[in-house]
Amino acid sequence: MKFPVLLLLLAPFAALAQKPAPLLPLADPAIQKLVDEISAKNLEADVRKLVSFGTRHTLSDTQSPTRGIGAARNWVRDEFLKYSKAGGGRMTVEMDTFTIKPDGRRINRPVLMANVLATLPGTDPADTRVILVSGHIDSRVSDVMNAIADAPGANDDGSGTVLVMELARVLAGQKFPCTLKFVAVQGEEQGLYGSGHLAERAKKEGWNLIAMLNNDIVGNSHGFDPEISDDKRLRVFSEGVPANETPEQAKVRRQLSSENDAPSRQLARFINRAAQLYGHGHQAVLEYRPDRFLRGGDHTPFNQQGFAAVRFTEMNEDFTHQHQDLRTEKGRAYGDVVEGMDFAYLRRNAGINLATMAALALAPAAPVKVEVLTANLTNRTELRWQAPATGPKPSSYVVLVRETSAPQWQQRIPVSGTTADLSISKDNFIFGVASMDAAGHESVAVLPVVGR
Ligand SMILES: [Zn+2]
Questions:
Q1: Quick one: signal sequence residues (predicted)?
Q2: What is the distance in A from the centroid of ligand 1 to the CA of 232?
Q3: Mean pLDDT calculated for residue range 114-142
């Protein structure tokens, strides 16, 4: 019954004069090669090393060379420096330090915290774009204030931290026009302090941050309650309405029903497509909500500062392994230990992150001032936009189209100039415009605003 379904899907586009292009852009073998360089062995060795610091609680020891958050941070910094050296020394490494005062909640004394941040500068000084991938280095047990007990944090969030490290290793010697940043943030479990600090800094320093990828709990393919396994899919959580939306923007959003098209959601759709291109069948499942129930994450402060930011989390979580004292109860082992992690799964999840970063970095910047013209009552769609002011000049563009009730793009229409006149009604579809280069690298899509 495949054929009739396909006909049904294409029926709304019957009026399109333009020749339909394949729904996905071309895959770049160079990106695939980098994705395939990610090593499950490295990921496992790095998690085991992180666990060896005993606890990485934000309030734990910073002086010991072998135990506590201080030793762990220094180790990540030294690894970043090694990758930088092996990659020709262009990647810079810094301790992004800041002090958090007692907050009456989860910080009981002034704490000097540090995000470990590596930066691979772009080769084009005129390209202001920045892409950031993150994991959180801190860990915890049942009592969020317990900074003494062993808190291995193998999966939460050793998995995200080592994913970031492995991407830095693979990419340190590569050349991209724009800047890539790799960060292990601190203070997540105490109140998103590291990411909050970095998001504020990004805003203050005027970073043109086009994508923030938060990886938190991405290395376990087996969930409990109920028992469930899935090593073929990774969840991508994204906000549909921007956290920093103004009342004026809310008015426009209600008018257009664009509650499913925030920049973070467009980024999530881009990730889903990057996974289809480079994931060897591994899927990025779009979750149309900003996070899971009862939980928050490091992408949230970036959303609040107005940046496109998403959260990656494994398909099924095992809550007996998260935020738990190491113990055995009724025959079940509790605690966030290495045993039970799935490093082949973590490797595929890292691949989706790398593919996203490389595909975004190699594509031209997204078009700007994208508008749908609504001056006349017609059954056509007129779109116009401008070339991006930064990065490599696009050689062409694509218009992405979907029905208003469809979750994902259904048509992809190549366009040579900066306008499009489509023989389908703007009333019945949602549009996005993306930039493309001669090799076929395609940017994230931009939702048009109403123009006249
Ligand atoms: Zn976490």
A1: 1-17
A2: 21
A3: 97
